Amino acid sequence: MFLPILFALLFLFSSSNAADFCVGDLYGPQGPAGYSCKKETLVTVNDFVYSGLAAAGNTSNLIKAAVTPAFSAQFPGVNGLGISLARLDLAVGGVVPMHTHPGASELLVVVEGSICAGFISSANKVYFKSLNKGDIMVFPQGLLHFQINAGKTPALAFVSFSNPSPGLQILDFALFGDDLPTDIIQETTFLDVVQIKKLKGVLGGTG
């Protein structure tokens, strides 16, 4: 009596329809849970391999920094797995301004150089430190945080996220890089109009 029941259970679990993975179909619809799944018959090993983080990003820009993502949009194998990665290159004087990732916590590991990094808690307490090669720092989900090259040589770090699409909002661009009217910014930030218009000019905002 016991053996037939055991065999029946083994058959039930071995024939389960539970998927091992959900490689993102980048040509299909995307919802809050991520991309829809690519047909398993079309999945190859290349869906689980990504080489895009091997090359340094272009830091010839306003912030002298580059973030190269390996999110589900670039690396469909991480779709649905609750993980992703990115490469962070900081030239001398480079900075990643105050920003948040609404959908994920972040873990940063310094590979080269020195990076001053920190975040602000919801109680407005500041946690920051200069990190060196091999140091790791975590940034809790949704909190404002930043990274600055704290040395005299280029810095390199890799960051992992607890979401294949962590999202991003940069505070400076949210305030000064769009069409939010100057008078509203003035009233909500206590900055003067001249400074606001100067920042809008630098960051491409209007209004």
Automatic annotation (TrEMBL):
SUPFAM superfamilies: RmlC-like cupins. Residues 51-197 form the Cupin type-1 domain. It is found in: Secreted, Extracellular space, Apoplast. Its main location: secreted. The keyword Nucleotide-binding does not apply. Pfam families: Cupin_1. It comes from the Eukaryota. CDD domains: cupin_OxOx (cd02241). Residues 1-18 form the signal peptide. InterPro entries: Cupin_1 (IPR006045), Germin (IPR001929), Germin_Mn-BS (IPR019780), RmlC-like_jellyroll (IPR014710), RmlC_Cupin_sf (IPR011051). Keywords: Apoplast, Disulfide bond, Glycoprotein, Manganese, Metal-binding, Secreted, Signal. Belongs to the germin family. This is Germin-like protein. It comes from Hibiscus sabdariffa (roselle).
